[in-house]
Amino acid sequence: MIQFYEPSHTAYYDRKAIEQDLNLVTIVRGMALKEYEDESHILEELLHPLQEKEQIRQRQQVVKACCEHPEFIKECHRHIVKAAGKLEGEMDSILDSRGKNHLNETLISTHLEALRTVVYATAALQQICEREKGKLQGTGLDTFVEAWFTELLPEQVKEQIELVENLDGFKRKGEITLRGHMAEGLLLKDMEVTDAREKVQKGGRKWLSRDKGSMILDERMFESAVEFIDSVLVEILEGCVPYLKKWQENFRLLRRQAAFLYGCSKLYRHGQELNFLFSFPEQKKAEILGLYDLSLALQTHKNPVSNSLKMEGYDALVITGANQGGKSTFLRSMGIAQVLCQAGMYVPAGQYPLQVYQGIFTHFTRREDASMTMGKFEEELVRMQEILRHAKSGSLILLNETFATTTEITAYQIAMDLMQACLDTTVVVWTVTHITSFARDLYKKQPERVLFLSAGREANQEQRYTMVPKEPENTSYGLELYDEIIARRKEYPC
User: Which residues of 408-429 are buried (b: 16+ CB within 10 A; e: fewer)?
Assistant: First the structure.
């Protein structure tokens, strides 16, 4: 199969949770074209992570090339979308009719149209590749471009189209010239068959005559020939089906990949217009610099607050600090960056390390709704159980204000047990927590394995929405809310 890059066949376990918790919809909408149904294709690529660093580097080369040559991928995308959509409809009609002994004119036409779709689309893509071949040498698109010049396509299929058209023409017009392969094992070359009923009557001939490779048929023979041609058409068109199905699958894959790559190019250009910082993750870079929440940036159309930190050497990350201090936003920015990294994309940062996790899981608080069949705390526990059942060594879990719906004592015990279990099994945890007693006790036990961050404040105590390495403070989430809401209201009574 011709493809832009080697696809990943592994999907995240709970794709819906990752999509929702990391607000990937906003990013996908920033990548997709409105007139095409690209959003689902792009999301599928984001939610199928690459598991090897070499695979990521290869995908990065393709994405880079598309960002540097946006017109190339735009044209490819347009032709692929058109061909894929058209071929889907044609193949549905063809497959629905399989097993029938008689092919009507409409069905023959559908087969022909499907064959033409493949020929025209592949020829158009070949032309684009030929034109851009010199520019794309040395990029990650080399393999894709070369593939169009090694596939046996147009000539073979054109002969097939000509044969079917001529056979169908014989039935409708009474004459045909047959060339090439009718079916496997049956070769008819340069033979002219003429419906010569009038000639037979005038000449008084009642049978068949041959003249320089031509055959003149009487009415009886003509009818027999029609029956024969019908059977041959069935054989030929049935033989086309595996070929067409192969190209249907090919264009399905190409459509998904082209949507993703064009989306990468589109978002990259849009980001440049808004002065967004993008970079491709590198293995030699251990420090994160200038990381920001891409979903928030796309919503506000401006650069949000960025963060920098060094994660190397730590097995977990614990974030505490003031309410509404940007903790959840920071955690989401980390999750988005890692998802984009393992999709082979650039990330919203000036620098980001190339790291691979064997699965990413998110556990963010959910709003209670009428569809819930259990209490909020129970629902949180059920989701956590599923995560722990599927997480393994090398997995990454993102926890945001987990178990805020229960008592602090209960939440403390669950959080401590969970963190210790993950540290023991080398499952990486990044958590935002309001349970300061848990954070402080963990700091006393595991300061060398866990990086502790806190939402920073200015000298006047105003929030900066940045995270700084800091020992967890002995504060209370409840008291913070009290100070923020109740105490402030005392100053300004209604």
Answer: beebbebbbebbeebbeeebbb
β-pairing, 360-364 with 396-400? Answer: parallel
pTM: 0.83
Alpha helix ranges (H) inside 279-357: 294-300, 327-342
Instruction: Please give the domain boundaries of the chain with CATH numbers for all domains.
Output: 15-171+223-273 (1.10.1420), 287-491 (3.40.50.300)
* H helix intervals, 391-469: 408-424, 436-445
Which amino acid is residue 453, in one-letter code? L
How many other C-beta atoms lie within 10 A of the C-beta of residue 24?
22
- What type of residue sits at position 417? D
Q: How many CB atoms lie within 10 A of CB 303?
A: 15
Q: Mean pLDDT of successive 10-residue segments in the chain (494 residues)?
A: 90 95 96 83 96 96 96 95 93 75 71 85 89 89 85 63 67 48 38 46 43 52 69 76 89 96 97 95 91 96 90 92 86 98 97 95 78 76 93 96 86 93 94 93 90 76 76 67 56 52
